[in-house]
Design brief:
By secondary structure, the protein is an alpha+beta fold. It has a domain of 63 residues: Nucleotide Exchange Factor Grpe, Chain A, domain 2 (Roll), CATH 2.30.22. It has two helices and six strands; from the N terminus they run ααββββββ. The strands form two sheets. The protein has a three-stranded antiparallel β-sheet. It has a three-stranded mixed β-sheet with strand order 2-6-3, with no helix packed on it. It is elongated, with a radius of gyration of 36 Å. It starts with a helix and ends in a 15-residue tail after the last strand.
């Protein structure tokens, strides 16, 4: 009879141990599920913040791009001598405000005149004949300024590129002697 009691006690111990093991395993499963949900939420939050930052940046860029033609008109206007001194001063004051505002938006005006033409940074709209061979392939005239924001080009400047013409009035090509 004692053997039967021992067997029953052993079965109870096993059942109790199994129950505790199951509860422990269940708790570990819930903890693992919690960690996964927390990690998923952190990833979701990070992704959402990045998407909103991207939307905000694109919206700002679209706004800036829509305002740039207005600023171009001011630049063109100030490049000519005004007849009325007060009008000229007023236009220059507005231009300075625009420039300060652009700076707050991390936008810089690109002034490529005199630079070597670069098809990745400039948009050539015409070639101008030049007498000076030093100006061949360089930006000789800016038609519309370009703008850069945080190092990225918002709009390429539209430029005229110098093309050297010799005394004969046509483009000088390097001579090839066949060697």
């Amino acid at each position: 009879m004692e053997d039967k009691k021992d067997i029953r006690l052993d079965e109870q111990d096993i059942n109790q141990s199994s129950s505790e093991s199951h509860e422990s395993s269940s708790l570990e499963n819930w903890e693992e599920k919690y960690r996964r949900v927390a990690a998923d939420f952190a990833n979701y939050k990070r992704r959402t913040e990045a998407e909103w930052a991207s939307v905000r940046r694109r919206t700002e860029e679209r706004l800036l791009e829509s305002l740039l033609p207005i600023f171009d008109d001011f630049l063109r206007l100030t490049s000519h001598k005004a007849e009325d001194e007060q009008i000229a001063e007023g236009v220059e004051a507005v231009q300075k405000k625009w420039l300060r505002w652009l700076e707050t938006q991390h936008v810089e005006v690109m002034h490529p005149k005199g630079e070597e033409f670069d098809h990745e940074s400039h948009d050539a709209v015409l070639h101008e004949p030049v007498d000076d061979p030093e100006l061949d392939g360089k930006v000789v005239h800016v038609i519309d300024y370009g703008y850069r924001r945080n190092g990225e080009i918002l709009r390429h400047p539209k430029v005229a590129v110098g093309r050297y013409v010799g005394q004969e009035g046509h483009r000088q090509e390097d001579e090839y002697d066949g060697e």
